[in-house]
């Protein structure tokens, strides 16, 4: 069944039906477009709330290791990824459905307009031919009536006794001419009728069926494409469901990963002071005060009760570089974390220094690859950083050793007693400097802190813990000249050694 055969005379209904189909396609495009706006708004709101509830503050807060805090941050991260998938759905719907179907709709409108225009044009041509046929028919009818009238007049003239032979001849000639003209009009009418019937047959059996079948094909293609658009609506979201499912699984895993016992242990480790609980307050008998004071009493002044430091929030000591303002356990933890951070940075710059030295060696062997002197500023800067970090590492390691070694003794004294390693360290350095000023002629000894491979000319290799003699002090370039026990002499990084006491 097709439109051209069964709906050959339903032009108006076909026009209305095809327009209704295009309207439906346009409505679906608008629906999907609004759906994308909903997805975009939803994704934007999700990103907004994840950003709002994400952790903010100090580095310690951002690096919080409690599982319940970390899991919430993971949930926020997963929701941020989930929002990204909603944005992807909106983007794919816009490009794959809205944009493509909009272009397809415009093409269908042009195609439909062309087909309907062809049908109207064929209809106008057929109507024009029919009018021409009617005109030929009327002319034939008129001429035939005039021919009959002329024939009757000729017969009347011939039967008239008063008519002359000339009148009769003229009347016959006139009737013959009219009859001849009527015959020509009749032939023209017959020819036009045959032509029109042929055109009408072509119009109803060939031309219009072809146009209507093209409209049917267009409408069926429109339906098929719309059906694909309906499926795309679902498929686009289905394609991201695995990722969305992973996001949701990640949220579930984050919740299951919470360990309340471990969080409690971690909290204790972070805030355990290491102090001993206050001893019992002794009874002070003031009735003894009425007796005259003895020499012994002056040697034993009344004890003053220590402050309950852990419960006091006022007059906290200012932060110190060695974290001595913190309780013992917290101080050890902070020093350990600081040492780990410095060690990581130090290793990074050591690797960088090693890479630069290797590159310099390559440049020395093959000058075409680069100028070795161009690396000197970067090498010097890196060595200076290594020296600074090495010094800091040694400083914090000394403080850590003090915190670990002096823990028992610090617990035995009053809880508020604190060490001042910085002052002592500074004093020892000053004493050492004075000693150097007084004994400049004495050869300095130092101990290697790390291994060093002296691959370049003028340098020597040393091993950790090796005893060295200083020949030339660091002149500000990060290098010093030393002599090994075997007599080898050369330059090494100043940051790789420490002076012997």
How many distinct beta strands? 5
Shape: elongated
Main sheet makeup:
5 strands, antiparallel
What Rg do the Cα atoms give? 54 Å
User: How many helices does DSSP assign?
Assistant: 11
* Protein structure class: mainly alpha
- Span of the ends, CA to CA: 109 Å
Helix % is 55-70%
Hey, roughly how much beta strand do the residues contain?
A: under 5%
- Mean pLDDT, all residues: 82
Unreliable residue runs: 293-315, 407-441
H/E element sequence: HHHHHHHHHHHEEEEE
* Strand neighbour order, sheet with most strands: 4-3-2-1-5
Topology:
Layout: H1 3-6, H2 11-53, H3 59-62, H4 67-159, H5 165-256, H6 260-271, H7 295-299, H8 328-365, H9 376-405, H10 407-412, H11 421-438, E1 445-448, E2 467-472, E3 479-483, E4 489-493, E5 497-499
Antiparallel strand pairs: 1-2, 1-5, 2-3, 3-4
């Amino acid at each position: 069944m097709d439109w051209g055969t069964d709906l050959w005379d339903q032009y108006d209904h076909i026009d209305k039906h095809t327009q209704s189909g295009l309207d439906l396609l346009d409505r679906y495009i608008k629906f999907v477009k609004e759906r994308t706006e909903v997805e975009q708004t939803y994704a934007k709101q999700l990103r907004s709330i994840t950003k709002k509830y994400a952790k903010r503050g100090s580095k310690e807060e951002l690096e919080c290791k409690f599982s319940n805090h970390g899991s919430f941050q993971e949930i926020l991260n997963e929701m941020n990824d989930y929002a990204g998938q909603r944005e992807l759905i909106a983007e794919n719907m816009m490009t794959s459905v809205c944009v493509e179907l909009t272009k397809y709709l415009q093409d269908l409108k042009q195609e439909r307009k062309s087909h309907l225009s062809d049908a109207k044009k064929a209809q106008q041509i057929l109507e024009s031919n029919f009018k021409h046929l009617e005109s030929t028919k009327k002319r034939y009818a008129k001429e035939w009536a005039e021919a009959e009238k002329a024939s009757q007049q000729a017969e009347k003239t011939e039967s008239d006794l008063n008519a002359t032979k000339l009148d009769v001849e003229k009347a016959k000639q006139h009737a013959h001419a009219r009859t001849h003209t009527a015959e020509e009009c009749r032939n023209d009418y017959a020819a036009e009728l045959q032509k029109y019937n042929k055109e009408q047959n072509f119009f109803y059996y060939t031309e219009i069926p072809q146009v209507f079948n093209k409209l049917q094909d267009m409408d069926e293609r429109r339906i098929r494409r719309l059906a694909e658009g309906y499926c795309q609506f679902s498929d686009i979201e289905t394609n991201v469901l695995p990722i969305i499912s992973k996001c949701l699984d990640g949220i579930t895993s984050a919740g299951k990963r919470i360990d309340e016992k471990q969080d409690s242990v971690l909290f204790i480790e972070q805030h355990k002071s290491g102090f001993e609980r206050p001893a019992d307050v002794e009874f002070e008998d003031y009735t003894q005060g009425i007796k005259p004071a003895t020499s012994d009493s002056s040697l034993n002044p009344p004890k003053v009760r220590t402050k309950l430091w852990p419960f006091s929030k006022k007059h906290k000591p200012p932060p110190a570089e060695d974290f001595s303002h913190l309780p013992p356990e917290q101080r050890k933890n902070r020093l350990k974390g600081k040492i780990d951070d410095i060690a990581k940075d130090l290793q990074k710059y050591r690797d960088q220094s090693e890479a630069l030295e290797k590159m310099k060696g390559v440049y020395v062997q093959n000058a075409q690859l680069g100028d070795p002197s161009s690396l000197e500023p970067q090498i010097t800067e890196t060595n200076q950083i290594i020296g600074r970090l090495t010094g800091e590492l040694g400083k914090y390691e000394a403080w850590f050793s003090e915190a670990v070694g002096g823990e028992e003794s610090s617990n035995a004294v009053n809880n508020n007693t604190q060490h001042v390693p910085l002052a002592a360290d500074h004093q020892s350095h000053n004493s050492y400097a004075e000693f150097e000023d007084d004994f400049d002629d004495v050869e300095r000894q130092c101990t290697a802190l790390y291994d060093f491979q002296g691959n370049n000319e003028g340098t020597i290799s040393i091993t950790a813990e090796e005893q060295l003699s200083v020949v030339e002090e660091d002149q500000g370039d990060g290098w010093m000249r030393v002599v090994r026990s075997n007599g080898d002499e050369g330059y090494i990084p100043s940051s790789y050694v420490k002076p012997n006491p």
